[in-house]
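Hi team,

Filling in the usual template for the complex we talked about on Friday. All components are listed, including any nucleic acid strands or ligand strings, so the model treats them as one assembly.

SUBMITTER: L.P.
PURPOSE: interface mapping
COMPONENTS: two
RESIDUES: 659
SEQUENCES:
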Amino acid sequence: MVNPYLIHPATIVEKIRESDDINTYRLQLVDEQVRARFRFAAGQFNMVYLFGVGEVAISIVSDPDEPAFLDHTIRIVGRVTKGIAELKSGDVLGIRGPFGQGWPLDEARGRPVVIVTGGLGCAPVVGAIESIFRRRTHYGPVKILHGVKTPHDLLYRERFDAWRHVPDTEVLLTSDQPDKAWHHHVGVVTELFEQVSIDPATSIVLMCGPEIMMRLGVPILMRRGIPATAIYVSLERHMECGIGLCGHCQMGPYFLCKDGPVMRYDRVAQWLGRVGV
Amino acid sequence: MADDNLRILPAAHLQRLLDTLCVRGYRTVAPTARDGAVVWETIRSVADLPIGWRDRQEPGCYRLEQTGAQEIFGIVHGPQSLKPFVFAPREPLLQIERSKDGFTARSTVPPSEKVAVIGTRACDLAGLVIQDRIFLKETYQDSYYAARREGLFVVAVNCTRALATCFCSSMDTGPRAHNSFDLALTEVDDQLLVEAGSIAGQEVLSDLFLPPAPESLVAEAAKRIDACARSQVRRLERSRLPSALYDAHAHPRWDTVAGRCLACTNCTMVCPTCFCHAVEETPDLSQQQTTHVRLWDSCFTQEHGYIHGKNIRPTIKDRYRMWLTHKLASWIDQFGISGCVGCGRCITWCPVGIDLTEELPALLTPSEQQSVINRQQEASGG
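RESULT (copied from the run log):
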């Protein structure tokens, strides 16, 4: 019987500073056999472990086609993430995973893809974008709409710049508290919907960010004719086990760690925005 | 024709069952009276059982009372269900040591121990079946639970007396033990009707060389169990679940019950099916070794709904609603079965006596406020 609680050591091969409180850690599993077996889908997450402190659920942001390296972008928000921030290249973290349901990249094949993200919410979808662009011809036009509070919060700048040059791809950025150097849209991400044409009948939407963005954004998209069944959202709750047993990540009837974190909108519409759910 | 699985054992000879289980390598565990309540203890002698005692349970009240009779299984249940035997309240998952690779993690799955639990009630057996489903039959199998479950031998006792807090008959979980037991006993005055429910149970039964149960005993046992079912004063109307409880999300009754609830977590700790747990790291002082431990958690704690910078369920109202909605409604969507077995422990052990069989019907009755909204919607054709 495989023990899903077993933690595997993984070396930090590179630590990339994204901002004052956010770093991306490129991890490589130490055990060669474990590494060779490790496969993941874009949108899945790992439980990342700091020796003697504990675990946190963090999405894998790297390209699923290169599973030898596992990138995790981690903001300092608590005890574990604060400890992780003190580590450097060559130090060792732990990993168990991958867990959860990723983005519906098979279903998206042949269709226009609209990606809507807010803040650090772009992290779980980065792997999906890389995966789509690796097989660019298999997908229709791609529109990436990304909102940040301040320009300082814009992570992965080089990637967004690079994605602009991918054929048949639009990248639109917005900030609601811009500085003088900001030359993109000013406002919230839902305002970007008006700047792009979306074919409601064929498009698929991947959405990730604060729940408020989904609650406000999805109805706008649905008014434009996109069915709820073509909208996917990645949701976040506290997780301690990652395998649907600890009970913390429930949203209505779902365990977001195993039924999600990526959920088709029509399945969670009734629960999103309900107080205390 | 006498059922081969049904045998008769004089109540005065119950020690033979204990001895047989010991010979077969089982640690025998049974209810014993301690500090005014009943707890599971390892026993070797029938004399350790709380013979002649009964429990009286009411909302927020648990009392042991001496009856003067020689009843062996007069006590229905204490605060503990079977849950602690399979899903340990606190259990190490991993032992982790620093090493040249950074660290080495080792599973601490316990060795399977043969434990015979004598005196399990039908409700708790139903709770065990639910926990089996959660820990063994979903996407991931829990090795720790599996190891403990493997060695468990259940001697059930069919109930012939209901407590004021019991409502198993409306949950279809009792008072007769349905399945998943190894042996089931029914105490009829000075006789025990013994039934085997598994191969392991049949083996123990054959070691005992008991005569077949006379039909009169079988009939009398059935009569008493039926009477017990009929005597239950509480019930839970389940026909409109889960959807009706989902629809009651904004019901003002949640405020009323939250005004009484202390968020003490008692209901979740005594519940035979609650499975929430936390994972904790307990390093030694040298920071060279650490134990990764899981321990029972409760959706009534402040931390349960915490996510960085925000608490999903900051109020007691949110938490009580989470618990009851999960137990009675979303559990059905998750596992195809209710999370409540009707044991009534959450009613008894609630310090303020909150009674879910009272809360549910109140929550499913449209509030005056909601009725007004509904009438307005109907009037406007909405």
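MY TAKE: The CA atoms of residues 122 and 208 of chain A lie 6 Å apart. Chain A touches chain B through 44 residues (CB under 8 Å).

Thanks, L.
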